[in-house]
Amino acid sequence: MDRNGHLYGEVDVNEEGTVFVASLFGYYNTYLSRKYAHLGWYVGIKKSGKPKRGSKTKWGQKAIQFLPRRLT
Predict the structure, then answer these.
(1) N or C: less crowded end of the chain, CB within 10 Å?
(2) Model pLDDT for residues 29-59, shown as the tens digit of each residue
(3) What is stated as this protein's family in its record (predicted)?
(4) In terms of CATH architecture, what is 1-9+19-72?
């Protein structure tokens, strides 16, 4: 996530902007940007399937709730 809140692909996996903190919200996972945690920016997906800007996300929105995958 960049400083404008846009998601992007990064070649370097150790880049600070690519680290997200996973947490539980009921039965859902949410992913908070570690670099912009002080702003409360989450990874979110719009109904159209496009990524939602971090600055437009808030705790409790459906756009930031992801179903966890079971590993078998």
Answers:
(1) C
(2) 898 888 888 999 999 999 999 999 999 999 8
(3) Belongs to the heparin-binding growth factors family.
(4) Trefoil (2.80)
Record the tokens describing residue 42, joined without a space: 């989450």
Rounded Cα gap, residues 28 and 59, in angstroms:
12
Instruction: Estimate to the nearest angstrom the gap between the alpha carbon of 47 and the chain centroid.
Output: 15
Mind listing the pLDDT tens digit for each residue in 11-20? 887 777 777 8
Residue in 23, 18, 14 with CA at minimum distance from that of residue 1: 18
Which residues on neighbouring strands pair with residue 45, listed in sequence order? 51
- CA angle at 30 for the pair 27 and 31, rounded to the nearest 5°: 155
What are the structural domain ranges in the chain?
1-9+19-72
For residue 7, the number of C-alpha atoms closer than 13 Å in the C-beta half-sphere is 19
